[in-house]
Amino acid sequence: xxxxxxxxxxxxxxxxxxxxxxxxxxxxxxxxxxxxxxxxxxxxxxxxxxxxxxxxxxxxxxxxxxxxxxxxxxxxxxxxxxxxxxxxxxxxxxxxxxxxxxxxxxxxxxxxxxxxxxxxxxxxxxxxxxxxxxxxxxxxxxxxxxxxxxxxxxxxxxxxxxxxxxxxxxxxxxxxxxxxxxxxxxxxxxxxxxxxxxxxxxxxxxxxxxxxxxxxxxxxxxxxxxxxxxxxxxxxxxxxxxxxxxxxxxxxxxxxxxxxxxxxxxxxxxxxxxxxxxxxxxxxxxxxxxxxxxxxxxxxxxxxxxxxxxxxxxxxxxxxxxxxxxxxxx
Length: 330
Fold this sequence. Notes:
mainly alpha; 2 strands; 15 helices; 2 domains
């Protein structure tokens, strides 16, 4: 077996494990929001594979080996988990195409991307179509027919107010006069901490992340750095259960894309830092920026933008840690 074949096999194995670990979160999301999740996944996967095949063909490389490595499917899956389940079909297709084109192949394909492809697709969708990116449904609030009408535009009526609701992060950002008890009373359907059952989704991603850690797909440094910094800054800025509290540490850990970001996004090996110390600092930066964007920024969940901003800092982090280690060694 050649070294190149060995690398390809390791990549395929890692991608399969990531897809397997994401399955619990995908199932919980389907349980919460219904068929829109699977429709989005189908659209994102087909678009990602089509774009991947087209670009590889233009570059005159083996389409079969490129599609079989699983990286396009992983990008499509992570993108699906970050998009609203009933966003228009063209938004999902556009985000998936942008993730593959501008997040991956623009820089040379697998192993060369400086930015996380899935988060680049999410960020472009947030900037370009902010209204469509806020249409999150109430848990168990949409049937299949209504979902198909919303996704594919079969109905000319406006989005039903009965099932489109603000997320808990939206409500906390817009109305800081709400107490935490009032926030949970109006936005939590199945639990108290993350809003509308989202805590179960985050716990599912946590379980998948622990599985990946156990299989040594990545090290603990980036996830621990992100979750620890998010916990610490939210604790420092939290003044108890009263108003204007910005959310408790547990609220921030179990809301939005916290666990998805910690175990499936910041652990991406190509766009992330290389040394263990730099990975820890990378995770810390993502956690801090996520909290700042959530609390004082213009978007309810800042994971995508936080990851992309820290991707820009990766070369500096790697150089800083390497220089510090050299000084210690000398």
